[in-house]
């Protein structure tokens, strides 16, 4: 379970990097070039989008990287990343895989109550 959580967390984090990169770029482009009626309009809270674009991928990749050694904090980081992606960007065609992968990785990391090592995290 820890290996699956690690792989899903890192892949979900990499996909979240793509979503974050384009979302941050969109808010910056609207700020620099202005709104274009019917084409580009600024989001309601650009600060939230920019913060989530930076933090969510970091949390997901960090959670995936530490899932093998410290499953409990890794699972929490992964679930926070999935929740942040959902809260900031919503559930759509671009976010369904980052949300699904990081959420499943978080559940798998938390479910790894009996680790391969003799020391349990509970």
Question: What does this entry show, briefly?
Answer:
With 122 residues, this protein is mainly alpha-helical.
The whole-number mean of residue pLDDT values reads 92
> What percentage of amino acids are in beta strands?
under 5%
Which structural category fits the helices and strands?
mainly alpha
> Which overall shape is indicated by the principal axes computed on the Cα atoms?
elongated
Distance between the termini: 16 Å
Q: Low-confidence stretches at least 5 residues in length (pLDDT < 50)? A: none
Task: Work out the radius of gyration.
Answer: 16 Å
Helix-strand string:
HHHH
Largest sheet: none
The helix count comes to 4
Q: Percent helix among the residues?
A: over 70%
Please report the total strand number as a whole number: 0
């Amino acid at each position: 379970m820890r290996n699956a959580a690690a792989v899903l967390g890192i892949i979900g984090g990499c996909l979240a990097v793509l979503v974050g990169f384009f979302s941050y770029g969109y808010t910056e482009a609207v700020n620099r070039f202005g709104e274009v009626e019917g084409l580009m309009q600024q989001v309601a809270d650009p600060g939230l989008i920019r913060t989530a674009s930076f933090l969510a991928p970091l949390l997901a990749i960090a959670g995936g990287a530490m899932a093998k050694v410290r499953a409990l904090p890794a699972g929490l980081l992964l679930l926070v990343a999935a929740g942040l992606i959902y809260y900031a960007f919503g559930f759509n065609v671009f976010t369904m895989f980052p949300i699904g992968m990081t959420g499943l990785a978080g559940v798998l990391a938390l479910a790894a109550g009996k680790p391969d090592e003799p020391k349990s995290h509970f």
